[in-house]
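Morning run. Coffee first, then this:
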Amino acid sequence: MMDFRTAYFIKSAPSPKELTADFGAEVAFAGRSNAGKSTVLNALVGQKALARTSRTPGRTQLINLFGLRDESRRLVDLPGYGYAKVPEAMRRRWGEALAAYFAERQSLAGVVIIMDIRHPLKETDRQMIEYAQDRQLPVLCLLNKADKLSQNEISKTIFALKKDASLATVHWLPFSGLRGSGVPQARAILDEWFGSGGLPYPPEPTEESDNPTADTAAPDAPTSNKLGTS
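And here it is:
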């Protein structure tokens, strides 16, 4: 199994175009601004401050990239969403960046969505699931703060979520970033995603490919993606 404790910071970027090369495999982490995404990430990698918590919820605007042992396997911390006090223009920019990331990033192997188990599946959470489903990517929903509910309450919540037929392919897992419950199960799922392969590193451009008069056929234009902006 991959050693998630080897996680290290690579870079932050304001948009997908400024991330590292699109190769290998990466898993994206998304969630509402108050769902405890940073706490969950730190619990998964066994570090106290790899993902830093902003003092003001909803203010983190960058996509944060972390490597696992090397840059060919990555964790991607996407900006939190759904914070009411964030200006509309900022929410729109975030929505556009998230939509672009899901549409363009071909090394994306799966999506982890963090929710507060006491208030799961808000409209913005559903939109993130739809982004992943449009790409036919596996989805793991970590129901964080499970330590605040009884086992009976947890079972009832998961039972209700599983009744939605449109979410039949989603994996639901109760989780506590503070207590570490759910960490081994989540790591096993991510390890399986990372083990399913990845994109080779893009080759260096050749003289022929740089020459506009080269005797090669132009590639087909990419088809439009169904993803919209939030």
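The first strand starts at residue 7 and ends at 13. Good start to the day.
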